[in-house]
Amino acid sequence: MKKKTLFPLAMAILIAAMLAGCGNQGSTTDSSEGTNGQAALKDVTVVLDWSPNTNHTGLYAARELGYYEAEGLNVEIALPGSGGADAMVASDEVPFGVSVQENVTQSRLQGVPLVSIAAVIQHNTSGFAAPVDRGIKSPKDYEGKTYGGWGSPVEEAIMKSIMDVDGGDISKVKLVNIGEADYFTAVKRDIDFAWIFYAWTGIEAELRGEPLDMQYIKDYSDQLDYYTPVIVTNEKTIANDPDLVRAFMRATSKGYQYAAEHPEESADLLLKAVPELDKELVHASQKWLSPKYQDDAPRWGEQKPEVWKNYSDWMYERGLIEQELDIDSAFTNDFLPETN
């Protein structure tokens, strides 16, 4: 699972939302009665941000354990289309998706009505990683090395921020675009380090016997301890069907709480739903990530205003956004259950 930011898609999201207009009711279907005379389940789609992995285990657990069904929902977990989950949610094609805080921030400042309704993980588990033989022990060591990314402005800005803290000079780093190339292939071929989520790529490196040196970006600035990933909906769904959002989040919260408390069993549920995943990797990743879902928060999914403000201020200060974010409209905790 590679770190991925969708800044170039902000305008595409806005256009998709405008084209959808007010007539699109989203991917929810409701019937008053099923064939047996009982109330039918409402069909609901949640779109992932990437291919299925342990960031998503709570969603699969909620489905496989019947938590969604108990809320009257028949939930499909779908892969993102060409426009990504953000565009699909913003245009009301689907009511729910998985995104990241920086995408919500950028989108809202473009007039796109995304709203974050839960933090999947409380603290940022991403960072810059290199094979140990590259001798990269701190951000200053990026000097003279080659970084492989995907060309997002946020990459260079974050790298510069943590290098500045460590006394490094980003002008001495060679930046290349590796697109969708696999991390392990790229570091053997033409780069020294890249931005990864440790829960997936880092754990895979351990299993391969290819240890990494990792600099977690949150360790160098509180402003960079932002939420990634988050669960999003749109303003229209919140306004028109708040009961749906509450029901979805009650079940989703139970799913992530189960995954937090039962890493082995929840890993098996993810594998049952997506059997093509590597079993050893899923179990090892889940064991590492499960304690980090809720971490030090009072409940799973809780989002703090200061986290949204810190990161949006950082983006504004570095010219990544042109105005300050109205954080009160960007996220809400209102649809989380009081307790898990």
From TrEMBL:
PROSITE patterns: PROKAR_LIPOPROTEIN
Keyword Signal part of the UniProt annotation: yes
InterPro entries tied to this protein: NMT1/THI5, SsuA/THI5
Gene3D superfamilies on file: Periplasmic binding protein-like II
Record's keyword annotation contains Signal: yes
Domain SsuA/THI5-like: 53-265
Keywords: Signal
Lineage top rank: taxon: Bacteria
Cleavable signal peptide: 1-20
Name of the protein in its database record: ABC transporter substrate-binding protein
GO BP: thiamine biosynthetic process
Organism: Paenibacillus apis
